[in-house]
Design a protein that fits this description.
Layout: H1 7-11, E1 19-25, E2 33-41, E3 44-52, H2 61-79, E4 102-103, E5 109-114, E6 119-120, H3 128-145, H4 163-176, H5 186-194, E7 210-212, E8 221-224, E9 230-233, E10 240-242, H6 244-255, H7 273-286, H8 292-319, H9 331-348, H10 350-359
Antiparallel strand pairs: 1-2, 2-3, 3-5, 4-5, 6-8, 7-10, 8-9
The protein binds adenosine-5'-diphosphate, 2-acetamido-2-deoxy-1-O-phosphono-alpha-D-glucopyranose (GN1) and magnesium ion (MG).
Magnesium ion binds next to loops.
């Protein structure tokens, strides 16, 4: 699974014109392996994104592929006839056998998309306007998928945003302490225990189930390189039934933090209120379906998701770094500390956030 794959061999299996020229690892995702592949075709090079799915994280790759195909086909139908329609949604390139994914000889699952040119992604928001654009794109994504025909999408990772279950997983991992790291993380474990009440805030509110993205990081939306507009929502593996507020909360979590997710200087980690304002405005501009209960919880959604991801990083640190890719020892603990610091910063600003949302 983790061996360096021969992308050229994989490429032969897909219906792509031209000659394979090069492949390079691409992006900064924590889970899948992504490559940008260039083909020479006449005078103009043509680029593609190749992705190998992490099937340790996604236990049912076929379900992921089926959801992906249904979601992209539905969105393509919605954008058909509009300017730039083919840049607004991912398009799956078929294999020579006419399927939308490839299972290679060692059992890995691959899919290929045309690279959407003249776009860029960022890992850290640069301006509130960028946050507005991303939030509007994610809000529009939810709106367009609201009428996805039945059947219900597969749960590609069951209980992905079930925060209380994430908490229980942490408790079990602390008890097992398989790599003897619990002592190192004592302050973070205590922080988690002290704040556990936040886990149920969204789930207890009886909010409607919707089709949601579930990983609404800023680098999961392609921004137009010239205008900065949100062009296309990508990274669709976690699109499944969920709560709209987990998407909004994950935007607040990932976009209001001006520091890297693994930042060690916690003084740099503070929730940026102008970015929160831009997110609220951008999301509300496109997500026109929100119920009063959903609107009421917009100000705290970020806290729940930030706390949840802190729990997940801490759990993975204690389990020996088996889920999120790490580049150095202790990285998952650093990531957890940054999430918990951000959570505290959101708490401190909760009343200002509520005031803003109620005024919108
Ligand atoms: P991961 O699961 O690793 O986060 P993503 O699907 O988010 O994978 O892709 C990683 C990065 O590759 C993205 O942040 C984006 O920069 C780039 N990317 C992915 N798909 C495309 C595409 N079709 N066109 C242009 N860039 C893309
Ligand atoms: C992972 O694959 P990537 O990097 O977009 C993770 C998200 C986390 C995120 C934190 C399937 O997303 O849940 O919020 O890292 N994806 C999965 O950066 O677990
Ligand atoms: Mg991604």
């Amino acid at each position: 699974m983790n061996l360096k794959p021969d992308v050229r061999t994989i490429a032969c299996e897909f219906q792509i014109d031209g000659d394979f020229a090069s492949a390079e690892p691409f992006g900064s995702g924590h889970i899948n392996d992504t490559y940008r592949v260039t083909y020479a075709s006449g005078n103009t090079p043509c680029r593609y994104i190749f992705q190998r799915l992490n099937h340790a994280v996604f236990p049912n790759p076929l379900a992921v592929m089926e959801n992906g195909q249904r979601v992209t086909a539905h969105l393509a139908q919605k954008f058909a006839g509009q300017p730039d329609a083919t840049r607004r949604v991912l398009t799956l390139v078929p294999t020579c056998a006419g399927k939308f994914f490839l299972r290679d000889i060692v059992g890995n699952f691959w899919r290929v998309f045309p690279f959407i040119e003249k776009t860029r992604t960022v890992d850290i928001v640069e301006t509130p306007a960028q946050a507005f654009a991303a939030a509007r794109a994610f809000g529009q994504f939810q709106t367009l998928l609201a009428d996805l025909p039945t059947p219900r999408l597969h749960d590609t990772i069951p209980d992905f945003h079930h925060t209380p279950k994430r908490f229980s997983a942490l408790e079990k991992t602390v008890a097992a302490d398989v790599v003897n790291r619990a002592a190192t993380a004592k302050p973070e474990i205590e922080f988690a225990l002290k704040n556990r009440a936040i886990c149920r805030v969204l789930l207890n509110a009886q909010l409607p189930e919707r089709v949601t993205h579930n990983d609404t990081k800023i680098n999961n939306v392609l921004l137009d390189a010239a205008t900065g507009e949100g062009v296309c929502v990508i990274d669709l593996d976690t699109v499944m039934p969920g709560l709209a507020l987990y998407d909004f909360g994950d935007m607040v979590r990932s976009m209001t933090n001006p520091a890297a997710e693994n930042e060690r200087d916690l003084a740099k980690v503070e929730m940026q209120f102008p970015v929160f304002e831009a997110l609220s405005r951008g999301y509300r501009a496109a997500a026109d379906f929100l119920t009063p209960a959903e609107k009421n919880l917009l100000p705290v959604a970020g806290q729940v998701v930030t706390f949840e991801l802190g729990l997940r990083f801490l759990t993975d640190f204690l389990a020996g770094d088996t889920y999120f890719k790490v580049q150095r020892d202790g990285e998952n603990l650093d990531r957890c500390r940054a999430q918990f610091k951000l959570f505290e910063s959101m708490r401190r600003q909760e009343s200002a956030m509520s005031k803003l949302v109620s005024e919108l």
